[in-house]
Amino acid sequence: MFGKQQPLALQLLGSERSREALEGVAMELEDSLYPLLREVSIGVDPRAVFKDADWALMIGAKPRGPGQERADLLDQNGRIFVDQGKALNEVASPDCKVMVVGNPCNTNALIAMENAPRIPRRNFHALTRLDENRAKCQLALKAGMFYTSVARTAIWGNHSTTQVPDFVNARINGRPAIDVIGDMKWFREDFTPTVATRGGALIKKWGRSSAASTAVSIADAIRSLVVPTPAGDCFSSAVITDGNPYGIAEGIVFSMPCRSKGDGGYEVCDDFIIDDWLRSKIRASEDELLKERDCVGHLIGVEGASCAITVDTTLPGEN
Ligand code: LMR
Questions:
Q1: Is 124 helix (H, G, I), strand (E, B) or coil?
Q2: Comparing C-alpha atoms, which of 149, 127, 150, 105 is closest to residue 216?
Q3: Does 104 sit in the ligand 1 pocket, CB within 6 Å?
Q4: Cα(48)–Cα(161) distance, rounded to whole angstroms?
Q5: d(CA 290, CA 297)
Q6: Are the beta carbons of 139 and 186 closer than 8 angstroms?
């Protein structure tokens, strides 16, 4: 993920309840003799585990229980991310990069960010690279080509069923994907929902969340920040919208096409075409994230926000 020369120290955070499992994971890591893995430590106190962390991968979150309202899920997970954000603020490296995977990941990332004012806001990411990889896979299959032919495949918005896989700007072998595939009905009625509901579809098949593809996509997402983005290409990451070039409301964590010089930072690409289809879909995802933000106002220091989620866009991975 960081290149073939970069040794790693892994500091693994668990909870009291998962301590034994964490010890098992550490044993597995030790026994694998990874050539670059120089240290493994475990703990249940984020203030100890996040000490001097350069990268924080926030993999876990509390899954939604049977019959639980989405607002309650946001609140319960939010409280975890308040605590972890504060711990990062206190002890992590001042330029720590944070990748949030646990759902609802965009709003969890926002909560961690708002509780860690010492760390730059732009350093917080929520994982939508898995969605990008899913979109590339579908485009490649439809075009009958290998996935390496597919580029400029952005995911916009929330990592939920309102996410917007962007076929308008995607390229296959350097040509617009729309021209190569030539089937707008497929893009709108098949490709878009297939990508947006892939997590849930996978759970139905094998009874649990995607694991291997998620792990690969986390490594891909981080690698995209530490190697320069090829000219004309992009990678998707949900990042803070402050100052974005697309008129998306500021102050939410929203997936957008990004590019990097390979220094751990990124900029949001400003040359993506937003047609009417994309605009209306992006608005719906933006609206959802603004509502999520209102639901966690009490966790991010916003007074008077009220939680009014009326449509429950089931998160990928939930049944
Ligand atoms: C996914 O997209 O596969 C995940 O978000 C599913 C999950 O665990 O919620």
A1: strand
A2: 127
A3: no
A4: 36
A5: 10
A6: no
Q: Which two tokens stand for residue 202?
A: 């996978």
- Read off the pLDDT of residues 118-176 as tens digits, 9 standing for 90 and up: 999 999 999 999 999 999 999 999 999 999 999 999 999 999 999 999 999 999 999 99
Q: Give CA–CA dist 257/153, Å, rounded.
A: 8
First to last CA, the chain: 32
Contact 113, 97 (CB under 8 A): no
Instruction: Report, as residue numbers or ranges, the catalytic residues.
Output: 159
Tokens of 153: 């495949």
* β-sheet bridge partners, residue 12: 42
Coil/strand/helix, residue 99:
strand
Q: Convert the pLDDT of each residue in 277-302 to its tens digit.
A: 999 999 999 999 999 999 999 999 98
Distance from Cα 213 to the centre of ligand 1, integer Å: 10
Backbone angles phi, psi at 9, to 5 degrees: -115, 125
Nearest to 292 by CA among 284, 85, 115: 284
pTM for the structure as a whole? 0.95
User: How many Cβ atoms from other residues are within 10 Å of residue 294's Cβ?
Assistant: 17
Smallest CA separation from ligand 1 atom 6, residue = 317
Those residues whose C-beta lies under 8 Å from the C-beta of residue 22, and which sit 6 or more positions away, are 12, 14, 42
Q: What span, in angstroms and rounded, lies between the C-alpha atoms of 204 and 199?
A: 9
Q: From CA 214, how far away is CA 36, in angstroms rounded?
A: 21
| Dist. CA 161 → ligand 1 center (Å) | 11
